[in-house]
């Protein structure tokens, strides 16, 4: 009996040991499985986080792209403008003169000859004078029943103008008072308070006359009007019908204008530029300002 009891205890102990061993083996297998699964979960989380970060960066870049492009476009436009401005030839902005002075870079037609401007060439009723207003200087033409003009020649002591490189001409002007009822298309009323000539050459067998375009600030005619006086063509670029007293900026492709009014191509080197004011036909007052006369490269 004692022997049987002893065998039963041994058998029970063996069974318990076997059960414990199986339990520990199962627990170890689960731990191994968890250990194997954990890195995979971490990798998946890392991949997802990386994807989220990249998507956020892509979204930000897509949002910033228009601003970056706009900045690049602005920079390129500024560089192009700077390059063009570097090619501009300034004839006169009148800033180098004193208020009330004569513009001594210009010449005056005296006894059919161009001479350097001097005080004796100016008279009370026909004169050019530098005026200063709000920190800016300009050239004022004043005529009453008279005509007056100044010239800058395309020569060594004037300026250098080649239409192949600078086909455009620009200036600012302001009409203060224009000849009353004047009309450039009527000889007896042909007064122009402010005009700018481009003189290309002189033609004629015995009497040589200038072949020129005269750009005018007309008292009455509309912008775009063209009047022909033989070798002189008048183009209205400003008009009192649109008002006076305010500055206007004018740009002209003088090569295109020449082809339009004369046909053919102009000489590569015009002879001169002339500033003009007259009211001798109407006997009235004319006063206007000129400023920032420049030669421009092609657009």
Task: Name the descriptors.
alpha+beta, Jelly Rolls, 2 domains, 6-stranded antiparallel β-sheet, 6-stranded mixed β-sheet, elongated
What do these coordinates show?
With 299 residues, the chain is α+β, with helices and mostly antiparallel strands. The chain folds into two domains: 1-86; 90-296, Jelly Rolls (Sandwich), CATH 2.60.120. It has helices spanning 2-86, 254-261, and strands at residues 89-92, 107-110, 113-116, 126-133, 136-144, 147-153, 168-177, 194-203, 209-218, 226-229, 232-239, 248-253, 272-278, 285-296. A hairpin with a 5-residue loop joins strand 8 (194-203) and strand 9. The longest helix has 85 residues, at 2-86.
**Assembly status:** single chain
Strand portion, in percent?
Answer: 25-35%
| CATH architectural arrangement of the largest domain | Sandwich
Order of helices and strands: HEEEEEEEEEEEEHEE
Outline type: elongated
- Highest CATH level, the class of the largest domain: Mainly Beta
**Given the structure, what is the number of helices?**
2
Largest sheet entry? 6 strands, antiparallel
Count of the domains: 2
Estimate percent helicity.
Answer: 25-40%
The residue ranges in which pLDDT falls below 50 over 5 or more consecutive positions are none
Class by alpha and beta content: alpha+beta
> The CATH topology of the largest domain, please?
Jelly Rolls
Number of strands: 14
Mean pLDDT: 86
Distance from first to last alpha carbon: 125 Å
List the helices and strands and how they pair.
Layout: H1 2-86, E1 89-92, E2 107-110, E3 113-116, E4 126-133, E5 136-144, E6 147-153, E7 168-177, E8 194-203, E9 209-218, E10 226-229, E11 232-239, E12 248-253, H2 254-261, E13 272-278, E14 285-296
